[in-house]
Amino acid sequence: MMSKALAGRDLLRMADLSAEEVALIIDTALEEKAAWEAGVRDKPLAGMAVALVFEKPSVRTRVSFEVACARLGATPIVLSGPESAFSRGETVADTARVLERYCDAIVLRTFAHGKVEEVASWASVPVVNSLSDDHHPCQGLADMLTVREHLGKLEGVGFAYVGDGNNMAHTYLEAGALTGMDVRIASPEGFEPSADIVAGAERLAARTGASVRVMRDPFDAVRGAQVVAADTWASMGQEDEHAERLALFEPYRVDADLMAAASEGAVFMHCLPAHRGEEVTDEVIDGPASVVFDEAENRLHAQLALLKLLLG
Ligand code: CP
Ligand code: NVA
Question: Which of 37, 53, 134, 299 satisfies CB 3.0 to 4.6 Å to 64 for a cystine?
Answer without folding.
Answer: 299
